[in-house]
Amino acid sequence: MKLTFIGGGNMAIAILGGLMQRGYRGQDVLVIEPDADKRQQLQQDWQVNVAEPGTAIPASDIIVLAVKPQQMRGVAEALAPQIGSALVISIAAGIKLETLGRWLGGHGRLVRVMPNTPALVQAGISGALASAGATDADRRQAEAILAAIGDVVWVDKESELDGITAISGSGPAYVFYFIEALQAAARAQGFNQDTARKLAYQTFAGAIKLAMNSSDDAETLRHKVTSKGGTTERAINALETSQVRATIIAAASAAAARSRELGEELGRDPQE
Ligand SMILES: NC(=O)C1=CN([C@@H]2O[C@H](COP(=O)(O)OP(=O)(O)OC[C@H]3O[C@@H](n4cnc5c(N)ncnc54)[C@H](OP(=O)(O)O)[C@@H]3O)[C@@H](O)[C@H]2O)C=CC1
Ligand SMILES: O=C(O)[C@@H]1CCC=N1
Which positions bind NADP(+) (predicted)? Predict the structure, then answer.
């Protein structure tokens, strides 16, 4: 399968890294990326083919659009005459299938995907929405790529992809933020950087492993840590007093709103 990535930034690197570790061959991949250092790194790490924007796109089975939402229109319009029979996968936040199809000159075989960076270690989760013009074979091809880098959830509405963007697309950043905070808390307890990191990382790794291997839900597992009148109870009370749970829900809601806003802003026809 010949894969072309347009954009070789953070998310493209995560997807590519995951695919390469699953046995995809660098020689079957082309990455179009303006930054010479990134091109060199991609070539060095995975022996993929690389080229600058403006290079003619060779016949591809799948073209993955991995540029920022704000860069997508120019990229899609330049790509339109060169798509051939490729399936186009966009990973951009917010950009709707109808908008993308218009920018691509009416190309109908599209899948909008929202992956996340744990794809790099095949532990990603992606939301996917196929356009009306995508065939069953297109869905299977998209599924094959996404399943190689983690789990896949197919949805049938654009709004659900905005929600997935807010939860699992942006979600790794929320988790890293919590890890940073726990590390800072360990430093405040007087531990050095290495020990603080070890305590925070292993607590996360252990808790998630326990949760994923347990028939108890997260709330029950939390109660099992929280002894009546003990230390955890005091900490959870502090979190509740500061409305941390409500803040996390509000944060995800703000992310979903931004995804919708990007879709509206960038999808507007300038003649309207
Ligand atoms: N990062 C993440 O966790 C996730 C990101 N996404 C989506 O993935 C997309 C990419 O995000 P991310 O990887 O973080 O962004 P990056 O900025 O890291 O990557 C985008 C890359 O595309 C390059 N680029 C710009 N113009 C062109 C062009 N004409 N042709 C080819 N490449 C070009 C950029 O170069 P330059 O910097 O010089 O402009 C940059 O290297 C976004 O649409 C985002 O919404 C989706 C899920 C998760
Ligand atoms: O922050 C962003 O806009 C992208 C989309 C989801 C994760 N990163």
Answer: 6-11, 66-69
